[in-house]
Design brief:
The chain is α+β, with helices and mostly antiparallel strands. Helices cover 27% and strands 37% of the residues. Strand 23 and strand 24 form a beta hairpin.
Amino acid sequence: MSAPAVVSGVRFQWLVHESIGTRMLKMLSRSIGFLSFATLLAVSGCGGGAEPAEDAEGGSEGGEVSGAIDRVVLGPEALSSLNLEYARAEVRNLAPSLEVPAEIVPIPDRHATVGPRVAGRVSTVGVNVGDEVERATPLIVMESVDVGRAAADYIGAEAEMSVAEQALLRARRLHEQRISSQQALERAEAAFAAADANLRAADARLRAFGASPANGLAEAAQGRVTLASPIAGTVTARSAHVGQWVEPSEVIIEVVGLDSLWLKASVYERDLRYIEVGQRVQVEVRAYPGEVFECVIRTIESTMDEQTRSALVRVTLANPDHRLRPGMFATARIMGTHAHDARELLAVPRSAIEEIDGHPAAFVRVDEGVFEVRSVHLGEYGGEFVEILNGLEEGDEVVADGSFLLKGQLLRSTLGEDE
């Protein structure tokens, strides 16, 4: 049996037993030839693949065959369909920057949690996750015995208030005509004050349950209360369903305004001296590789995290198309830091670097449709470029856009070889 493939850096080496390796090579040479097979392997699977290098011993019989997958060969059709873009390794003036981990979170004033103020049963749910709502949009209708009682108390207090008001008016008129005594007037005024207090208390209790005479006393009288959105935004969470019993402590709907979000980045204590409000920040998220979102630092929090010894830097991200979501992890590249002045360094675009077998690597175009995998060591980051310490030379042409497609073909070919 063939030994398992050994992966190291970007070179994938294997050993093939003499008899099996010889038979395989003879079978392939009789059908399409070894070189034709390598080319077919390179363009198979979405039009691309990796080509194994020739064995060190020339493939002669009587010895082990060794090789390494260190390049990707694409046919003309595959090369045309990928629309690859290239860039050269050049010495550039890299402006200093600081790269830190970050997370996208809602702006607190644009994040609302909606829950019942009284225990009850859900009768209607009018929204689903992803729905856009305006302020005061009805979200949920629920039924509650407590709301019905509060509405009944309000109606009773309102009736008592009407009677007390009429009695006070009559008492004042009789007192002015000197028909009734001062004591009778005072008793009417006291009764009116008590009725007014009862009505105010009933109104406050009804409002505490989320109902209000202004919002429709008839609904509250039937024990129903409507939960409305306190802000305009997008429904991001819903845990309620029809017939569910809910308690005041539960959060059943969340609404977030997604037009703008906060990005919180952690900056270590040693780097704080390079950061200031107003600096430009480039943000990248995993969901959109290679895409950069621009913003500026708005706030540097004045307290430090005692465990990580870092401070939070906050920026506001415009998000008109709602592509960014709260909870996304991101990388914030803070531009214009003053760790050192700009320097002339050999660099390539950041998009040209892929991680292969745990190490950074780049695809170098050595011929039309032929790309060599080069392991590289990275230095400093400056904007959209990264310093190359070794692995590339000035003038090398690398794949700047589409390198992840070549990586996929390389890994697919590697898995095919292991099988």
